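Re-run with default settings, no changes from the original entry. Doing this only to confirm the output is reproducible before filing.
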Amino acid sequence: MIAARSLFRAGAAGVMALCVALAVPAVAGAQPYPSKAIQIVTSVGPGSNFDQLGRVFAERLRQKLGVPVVLENATGGQGLVATRRVLNAKSDGYTLLLTSSGLATMPAIVKNAGYKAEDFVAVAPLGQVPFILYASSSVPATDIASFMSYLKSNAANLNMGLLTTSHITTMLARKFGKVVGGELVEIGYRSSPETLSALLANDIQMVATTHAIAGQHVALGKIKAIGVVADERTQAVPDLPTFKEMGYPTLVINVWEALFAKADVPKDVLDKIRAVSREIVSDPSYLTAMVPTGMEPWRIPFDSLQSVIDEEAKAFKKDADELKISFD
């Protein structure tokens, strides 16, 4: 009997020892985040202002975390190619998404977008770029007041350039039409440089784009900067007023860039990325490096980022339904 008890105790001890032995490699193998290269997938093309700022951020993230950080351009499908690539990746924080407001608004206007806005969580605000409404030299207006007066009488005769890769410019064209009580002729282009060429040739009479794209032609007197279609003035042309401050509060589009992760990435990993990102975007050297990209600081509290994006998406859906904006 005693021998049997001893044998049982020995066997139990052996099982416990085996369990501990098996557990030790798992614990020892667990490595703190990050322990390998991080991939940031972006929906924008190489060389764009969003791409340039993304690379500035990625390099500083590499310096902070001590691992390679690779920025990959995955263009197409109005951002859906990049979005789906990240959605299908592991939820481990090693594949992140760098994109714009389209991430939250696309499901509202695209059938079968393949994802829900809730599939992703905002991590960090990188920057923003206020758009300016430019008019061709043929338009007899030089400021917001004279332009809106002219537009109300000539809406059907004016062509507005849109980016076929961005639903935001379509939204703006419809908003202008609603304000003046008419429909503008919308002409789509694949890139901002193409819209600028069309404006210079007077194929279109108005377009919203950035100062970096069109500013030099204003200085040469070839086109006119009418006003800023954003909540605040642009630091690139500080004396140019916004449509909002001149009495047109709906003529606003928000163009920003932010870092996102899949919503089910572990909280400790998200906290790590947020903390490091906060250090990066608040560093004066980052703000200095931002200037050549044409982007501007997006001064929004990290803690408010997700709620601001959610509210913006709700407002966009309301406007899209009212203005009948949708894409197949």
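The chain has two domains: 38-129+256-323, 132-228. Residues 87 and 202 are 42 Å apart (CA to CA).
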